[in-house]
Amino acid sequence: MFKKILIANRGEIALRVIRVCRELGIKTVAVYSEADRYSLHVKFADEAVCIGPAPSRESYLHIPRIISAAEITNAEAIHPGYGFLAENAQFAEICASQGLKFIGPSPDAITAMGDKALAKETMKKAGVPVVPGSEGVVKEVKQGLEIAKALGYPVMIKAAAGGGGKGMRIVFEEGEFEKAFQMASGEAGSAFGNPDVYIEKFVEQPRHIEIQMFGDQYGNVVHLNERDCTIQRRHQKLIEESPSPIVDDELRENMGAAAVKGAKGVKYEGAGTIEFLLDKEKNFYFMEMNTRIQVEHPVTEQVTGLDLIKLQMRVAAGERLRKKNFTPRGHAIECRINAEDPDHDFRPSPGEITSFHLPGGYGVRVDTHCYAGYHIPPYYDSLIAKLVVSASTRDEAILKMASALEEFTVEGIHTTIPFHRKVMQNGAFASGDYDTSFIERHYNKD
Ligand code: MV4
Question: Which of 287, 289, 437, 441 for a ligand 1 pocket mutation test, highest count of atoms within 8 Å of Cβ?
């Protein structure tokens, strides 16, 4: 096992990694920006190195400063967390060239999954179902029009360099195609420096179901069941759960087997997630692969009993995965508590937390880096806590979540807690029967 690692991240995920390192006897190095001087990851790590000013570009995204921090502290490996440099193939490559183990997949796997059109073709070749559409990128409008006609409208135009909904356009009829194509391509060009787009049949009223994957350095790949992340707002997930209320054993087995084929196809190492769209008839289609540990990993931990961060450390250090039975036990739900005002279009609400009281009880878990007196800086994401409950059934988990949300007190800033309280009372949510338009349909205040 490593003796010392550097954590190239901040917030709750940095704390989560530090805690695992303590359990494994690994020394930790925190890095921090000038805005994070008083953060708990700085306090709890064995060493801490300031890597620059508040803006991410000059600190958490500044590769030479992070590599230097690892070198001066003699760290052997880097845990990237999520966001920032977690899916940057160049960073993974530089780590390797400096003799630092990047705790994650190979640069090649990151690159292959980063181009969404290439990722789709790679998965298709490995035998994973994909949404019918163009084979790879479409360079000309004329070619696009032919493909769209053959697929039948509505279709979606997606940026190859996109992901998470950026540079995406839905087209309902032929007359709108050309303009949408130019818009999507132009948007992709200015946002990602790559104007390439591809085309897909539009899947109506889908669910977002993702499979947690793990691979080791010897080609063994396992799946750890699904998470249902259908409750999203503008491509930001707000609630995640496992198992999905609409996935039965047979579908779980089929999606899991497909995901394993896909991950084996890219010799995947470490934690990763394969996202699927599930249509009304419960057909599933590959959407994207995320080559990182995700925010919502705790719901999988709660139903499998595995510590996924610990598992990341172990496979990065060369341990082998042994196939076990990972059938989910009970039910877990996560609510993302963000410093945002749900009554004003979820606008960010940074500032000082003046009082902070956490819920408790059996099966209640809170992953947070916040405390009373903490100032939420305006520079980074707005996640302040992940509230995760587990119970034997979904109905119990919903009641437990409602109760925990009642206890959870945060003063000084606005949070998404009141929004989550309403969802836990919502009949459609309780029934498990909804799609990705849930929030627009039930909570549109715009
Ligand atoms: C789709 C789709 C329907 N049909 N692709 C949104 C983010 C990006 N990862 C892909 N997304 C979608 N792709 C086809 N062919 C609908 C969405 C989508 C969506 C997917 C999952 C969760 C929430 C969503 C909200 C709007 C659109």
Answer: 287
CA of 374 to the centre of ligand 1 (A): 36
Rounded CA-CA distance 400/388 in Å is: 10
Helix 394-407 vs helix 417-424: angle between axes, to the nearest 10 degrees? Answer: 150
CA 292 to chain centre: 7
Marked catalytic residue, from 292, 336, 365, 394: 292
**Taking the model in full, what pTM does it have?**
0.97
- Determine the pLDDT at residue 90: 98
Q: Which CATH number fits domain 207-442: 1.10.3720.10, 3.30.470.20, 3.40.190.10, 3.40.50.720?
A: 3.30.470.20
Q: How confident is the model at residue 324 (pLDDT cuts 50, 70, 90)?
A: confident
Residue whose Cα lies nearest atom 26 of ligand 1: it is 436
Atom 24 in ligand 1: residue holding the nearest Cα: 436
Q: Whose CA is nearest to atom 21 of ligand 1?
A: 208
Catalytic site includes residue 292 = yes
Task: Give the amino acid at 13.
Answer: I
Q: Which helix (H) or strand (E) holds 350?
A: none
Q: Are 223 and 429 in contact (CB under 8 A)?
A: no
338-350 pLDDT, tens digit each = 999 999 999 999 9
Q: Is the pLDDT of residue 164 over 80?
A: no
In the chain, residues under CATH classification 3.40.50.20 are 4-103
